[in-house]
Write a structure and sequence with these properties.
The protein contains 13 helices and 12 strands. It has 356 residues and is α/β, with parallel strands linked by helices. The radius of gyration is 24 Å and the shape is globular. The protein starts with 7 loop residues before the first strand and ends with a helix.
Length: 356
């Protein structure tokens, strides 16, 4: 099916998430189509986990908008407020200038301020109206820290149902048992506490807690990074099965590119809070374009010791690779469905490298 005809389940538009002066996520935009697995990769600290947490509204986003099924569920107002401040400063400067067209420019500034003020009111209203979106659930990276050690497995998994107002204890119990069996555990585990389980079992409990709410979108935040390799495969296979049986859409956050390639339909690459490349899994691995993506792929170890000795690691130095003194980069479509963060000069260079 052509991407233009696919249903957009989640749309992230110009998302910014700042913590003081730290720009954890800076102007990130992408779409997740219904039924797909969208992989988000990058080194530690690049902002991929922050992006996931912002989508599920664990953070109040700084600016930008997040849409779920076409409805805005989160909106930031910092960019609007900054522009209002800039327009007010411009008005003060125009008032002092004595320019013949000052009054006309001041009127335009005031009109823009009024428009931005309306945007702020609408953003706050949409954010408040959306409340908690139970159709989106999250699996966290560290299974033990995300589970309350004072609650039994049954209480942990059922908590979402109770919060939503379900009061039939027998029905809740049956749902918990059913979900436990779905994720590969047994009924007897319901009365135990998290510390009595292995890391892989605890992650299955985390998955059960998420899917009992019957979500459409599952955000999996590095769900296998804290697990042994053999257990990683089991959890990935479980997620694959759940994706098919429950008709899930998955935002899969990871730094292990080998796993992401196997599990994802499309992949977004993040670096220092920016989305630098986005393409289908096959396209990204066949034609990596951004220098950081090339560096990331070159770091994947090879299972053959002879090939591993010959593997060339590509170093990425942004200061040497890019000159943004004249024109700032934006996310541009180089080939259909393949986006790269670049300016006009780099875009032409990348097109020539691809033989376009």
């Amino acid at each position: 099916m052509a991407e233009n005809n696919r249903e957009v389940l989640l749309k992230v538009e110009n998302l910014c998430q700042y913590f003081g002066r730290t720009k954890a996520v800076d102007d990130v935009s992408f779409e997740v189509y219904k039924g797909e697995v969208f992989g988000l990769v990058g080194e530690s600290g690049c902002g991929k986990t922050t992006t996931g947490r912002s989508i599920i509204k664990l953070y109040d986003i700084t600016s930008g908008s997040i849409y779920y099924k076409g409805r805005r569920i989160a909106a930031g107002t910092k960019s609007f407020k900054n522009e209002i401040a800039a327009k007010k400063k411009e008005i003060r400067e125009l008032s002092k200038s004595g320019s013949p067209d000052a009054s006309e420019k001041i009127a335009a500034c005031k009109e823009r301020i009024a428009e931005l003020s309306r945007e702020i009111v609408a953003a706050k209203a949409d954010h408040k109206k959306a409340g908690i979106v139970t159709d989106i659930q999250m699996i966290f990276q560290d299974p033990i820290s995300s589970l309350d050690g004072r609650m039994t497995v049954k209480e942990i998994i059922a908590e979402g149902l109770v919060i939503q107002g379900m009061k039939d204890k027998k029905l809740i119990e049956e749902k918990v048992y059913q979900i436990l069996e779905t994720v590969g555990l047994v009924r007897e585990h319901a009365g135990r506490y998290p510390h009595e389980f292995s890391g892989g079992q605890r992650q299955r409990i985390g998955i059960a807690r998420a899917i009992i709410m019957n979500p459409e979108l599952l955000i999996a935040d590095e769900p296998i990074s804290a697990l042994d390799v053999s257990i990683q495969a089991q959890v990935i296979n479980l997620l694959n099965e759940l994706r098919d049986t429950l008709d899930l859409t998955v935002l899969f956050i990871a730094h292990d590119l080998s796993v992401v390639k196997y599990f994802s339909d499309r992949i977004g690459v993040m670096y220092y809070g920016h989305l630098v490349e986005l393409a289908s899994s096959d396209e990204l691995f066949a034609h990596p374009t951004h220098p950081y993506t090339k560096s990331l792929l070159s770091a994947i170890p090879l299972p053959d010791p002879h090939l591993e000795k010959k593997r060339e690691r590509i170093q990425y130095n942004p200061l040497a690779e890019h000159d943004y003194s004249v024109e700032e980069p934006t996310l541009r479509e180089i080939t259909p469905g393949h986006f790269v963060r670049c300016n006009s000069v780099e875009e032409q260079k990348y097109r020539e490298e691809m033989g376009l």
